[in-house]
Write a structure and sequence with these properties.
The complex is a heterodimer of chains A (274) and B (446). Chain A is α+β, with helices and mostly antiparallel strands and 274 residues long. Chain A has eleven helices and eight strands. With 446 residues, chain B is of the alpha/beta class. The relative contact order of chain B is 0.15. The chains are: A alpha+beta (274), B alpha/beta (446). The A-B interface holds A 113-115, 117-119, 121, 123-124, 127-132, 136 and B 94-95, 98-101, 342-346, 367-368, 397, 427, 430-431, 433-434, 437-438.
Chain lengths: 274, 446
Amino acid sequence: MELLLGAAITLGILGMVFGIGLAIASDRFAVKVDPRIDSINEVLPGANCGACGQPGCGGFAQAVVEGKAPVSGCTVGQAAVAKLVANIMGVKFENRERVIAVVMCHARGVKNKFAYNGIKDCRAANIVGGGFLGCDYGCLGLGTCVEACKFEAMYMGEDGLSKVIEERCTGCGKCAAVCPRKLISILPESKMVHVRCKSLDKGAVAKKICQDSCIACKQCEKICPYGAIHVQNNLAVTDYNKCTSCGKCVEVCPNRTIINFARERSLSRHTLTV
Amino acid sequence: MTTLVKSKLKTFIGGIHPEDDGKLLTKSKKEVSSPLPKTVYLFMSQHIGAPCKPIVKKGDMVKKGQLVGEAQGFVSANVHSSISGKVVDVVPWQHPVTGIKSPAVIIERTEDDSWIEGANEDFDTDLISPEEIKQRIQSAGIVGLGGATFPTHVKLTPPKDKVIDTVVMNGAECEPYLTCDYWLMLDKPHEIIQGLKFVMKCLGCKKAHIGIEANKEDVYSLFKDILSNEPQIKIDLMEAKYPQGAEHQLIKALLNHEFKPTQLPLEVGAIVINVGTAFAVYEAVKFKKPLIERLVTVTGNGVENPQNFLVRLGTPIKQLLEEAKATASINKIIFGGPMMGIAQGNLDTAVTVKGTGGILVLKDARQWQSHACIRCGRCIDACPYGLNPSELSIMCEAKEFNLAIENNVMECKECGCCSYICPAKRPIVHLIKFAKAEIAKQRVKA
């Protein structure tokens, strides 16, 4: 009995000494963590995609608290998350429009230059003889962008071109970064009229290669009431700051190069639900 | 498969040698014909370094040997017209090596084929100064004709703190199928040796060492006879093995020096020149003749008449295929040899450049199905640079580029031994090339 009591007292005293020591140490060497970092981290999507330019969601939360990143910096969470982050930070939130990826190639009837039997990756294929596709600017269709998408918002269409499922797209830009031919643009959702061609070949050459290529006829440039579309280096280029998506250029485009996504969108939503 | 017989000949560790190296196809063909092209396409970038600036415009008349592309900066090489005629256009044209459209001067031949004044005259070169030699090489636009196309005058300007004591001349011609260097050595041994002496004089070197592969013993005995009373130039027979003609392997075999794959031969006091380059140096220094033509081996089972041609720069390969009587059923055309050559995707646009030593035409090129790595380790035995191609290819396939850098992917010279030997037919070199291209892109961004 005495033995038991002695052990209990010894341990009790030891426990008290260590307890006091720990209490002092935790007070003296405390690392001050801003509670806002944790609460921001909780409202972020948690995909760690890095689209904000920070190393994952935790890094972004810290950067926001340190003032190194804007509250609306999370491209994935878009307006909803930006609002929550702004609340936590106690600042006013200004609405930022949702952005999505648009594939700027609509190739039809493009023949291959040669048979390619190499690695199934657009970047690897593009360094072999300048790419196997007849068009030097078009979509190679090996699906590197689809592989890069972390939100399953892209798929390879039956026509061999990559497609964006707009509902799922978060505008993170991973697909645009890996495309060796720079065919994917990240644009505001409200912009619906796009020149879906990147060919800089002269009109006559481009037309032979692809049925849907821009032939630089300048019809769109002439009809645009806002001066938003111009032909540069044999290609019509849209200035999205001026474009109002009125769709006048779509009507005059002789080659079906310029497309109004408003129509396409309703179609794609329909096919998706089926 | 490869021969693993230990031989007493000088060589290096690793490498491969196919049982049938295809050289017999063109070795016995004595005649060398020189077809005159109707039109030539002269790329402004036929070398490593800055592309030239075109100094002619549409409609200009040019003479053979006239400067059409001016070198931009020191690491660059002039481009001269290879025919006399009229400039049709200066347009971007698909480059046969890079596959990217880059500026080219297109010249259509007129009837005469006369040299521009001042080129192709016989000069007395007994008392020529080293600076004059270098200047003539630079203005002639000479690049390494072994295939690397590094401007020769840059090679002849070593940094001041480096002493070059040996010029190594590469007569290995280790790529299967090619015989253009073999024929040049048989045909112009005296000129090649004179060219080598010009290079030695330019660098102030007292020693030179020539390496020739054992499958060219006739060339070896010919050179041995000529050099019998020239003790400063040594000549050795080396094992016939690919890549015996690469700088590192050549210096290991001949001088027994080793240096890192990322270093240049001047680290061990040597420079390496190809026999083709030596001949071009001779012509440039002796006659002030610019580099406008070279020997090209057109060979393979896709042509009925495989042979060596003396080809003007920028000749469309369609014409060469006609001369060599290409069969209708060809399915692969490679610029260069089968190991490091570049397969061509477009017959209409492909033209020869300074680095084109061979055109390999095949009618039964197989399309391999590649499989997962079976970890046999044959590529590790074959790699002449001591890398682990098996692991590297797996890293590149998984796009783990940083891991690949840690495992020295940048030291790979893309010689192709690993891909050749791989029983799973993995596209190892393609994977490594892809990774290197991606790493280069990342470095540009950073």
